[in-house]
Fold FtsZ-interacting cell division protein ZipA.
Amino acid sequence: MNAERKDSRIDKFEKRRKTTKSITLLIIIGAALIILLLFIWIFGGSDKESEVLDEASNEIQRNDNESNDLIIEDDTDEDVKEEKDTNNNEKEAINEDKDKEKDSEEKNKDKKEEEEEDKDAEKNHEVETEQVESPDDNVSKAYKGDWKPIETEQSGQHTTNYDDESQDRKEMEKAIKSVTGLDDDMILWWVGNDGDQQKVVATVSPSDNSKTYRVYLSWIDNNGWKPTKVEELKVNDKR
């Protein structure tokens, strides 16, 4: 943009220089005519003097008007171009500000959602649990609690998706971590259907395999995956 403006100023200067040169030439011509008129006035007749004066005056006036029109037109064109450039720059700046504002709003929204999910997970850690019986001999301990669903980003009719990178899978893992206390080093050995399309069961452990958990989840429409029971296993039967 600076280069274009620089070129524009150079062109403008060149046009004005040519105009100034033309005006100077006209002045010289005018001076010569004046000298000629003085000569005629001294040595010639009055009628011829008047005709020459009128013609010289008209010629000077025409040339002066043409020069003025050229300068005015030149200045106007340059001013209009500079004004357009300024307006374009202002529009670009406004659009950049809008894009930055939109990006900031999206980041704040994502951050808020993450904070809400973290709060749900923290609440589940603090929930009081009740030990229950299990018919499975491989279970050393089983317990239930009034856990909350982990907030979901999904809406509408829900179909369970077990793919590794699916939103469903990510939310399942968050729900499992919220009741087992495991973090990102959690190993998911197995996850599958628990007799209903909206229920799943998963087997997980920490990276050191010091414990093995079997976690049961149920899908709550518009709320997300809710942990319903946790079992601590004697042996990892999915390993």
In short: The chain has three helices and six strands.
